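Retro notes - structure team

What went well: the batch runner handled both jobs without manual restarts.
What didn't: labels got mixed up in the shared folder, which is why I'm recording both outputs here explicitly, each with its sequence directly above its tokens.

Job 1
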Amino acid sequence: MPAIDIGPLAFRSNAAAKAYYRAILHAYPVGAVIPEPHASHLLWLLDRHPEAADKRGAGVARFRVDKPPKGKHPCFWIDRVDGSATDFSFGWAIDGKGPSRLMEMRQAMREAINGDAMAFRRRFFEEHADTDGRVPCALTGVPVSPSECHVDHAPPHTFVALATAFLAERRISPDGSHVTAPADNQFVPRLVDAALAADWQAYHRARAKLRVVERDAHLRQGRGGRER
């Protein structure tokens, strides 16, 4: 991969730059304000973000590490001089671009069925958990707790396959008009049209076969070729 310069910092590749900024992220506890020189390194990186002007807003007062309201993993946050705040993706900044229109659409579609997935997990554990509160992973058979699992779509009706078929059948070409515009603290876009969201939810409920899988096994499956 080509070399990348971020301010005066030089990296041999995007991957090397991401490793560097990921190390900064994990060097500080949740809630910590990021001091110099790393604060300057983040300010240089912000200039590359595809939404740099919106992220900067009235001006950057400081950077910190925090978690999204519904997220498990920490990320960079910007506190602005006017008291507002927003999240900040170092990966998007290093790549110089955000997700594609298709990826945004899929993110919004996944968000629309997230409630169903969580309800399925709750019911599955209520009905199948052993005396330790664990259920067997559908991939490995290893017992897992609610905090150790993901809800997955069993092939051949994977999430991507269902989303692709739905968009094709409805003749929808993702162009950004079907999802909410970027905004502070909006970690994933959402479908704008409530009728479209309800149509997709009904389509998904009629076809998806959900299952509980161990989190690490699910991630290994993704690295092995599952389209995410």
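Job 2
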Amino acid sequence: MGMVFGKITVETPKYEVVQSSADYEIRKYPPAVAAEVTYDPSQFKGNKDGGFSLLANYIGALGNPQNAKPEKIAMTAPVITKSPGNESEKIPMTAPVVTKGDNNNKVTMQFLLPETYKTAEEAPKPLDERVVIKEEGERKYGVVKFGGVATDKVVEEKVENLKKSLERDGYKVIGQFLLARYNPPWTLPAFRTNEVMLPVE
């Protein structure tokens, strides 16, 4: 019932607030370990989750973990998406997911693993060779938080405003935005927590 009212009960990434203003926060995220799948979205017609089920199978969210130990890996939040053309991709449940587009219109979907995994070697080896374990370095983002439903129109407006605020204050944006959603889709809109994140130097 708590999830309907926006209660976040899973691990969320730790970060350091470097600067806080009325418009946004500058956050520094420490290194993390991720599981990822790269796929062509056109191969998943009628199924919006793309590589989600491959990653959910790896951590054991949909049954027995599909990794060499086998070891069940805890879910985390937020869901972070990055798709070709900066369009947000619908993900069916809250999970540690990052989705990124590349030049071939392929999408990389990424689950951030719990912080107990400090290196890629510590994470259980995936049984499916499409799932790759990698280490993410330290990252810095300009972040703005907002509630309600993260529609494309709302997200586009938040990204534009954040970009203007960052550039006004002398920050250089160095990549596409990420949309972070902390709640599953059945959470009432008034209780949802979302963030738009822009990578900065």
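One thing worth noting from job 2: The chain is about 10% helix and 25% strand.
We'll revisit the folder naming next retro.
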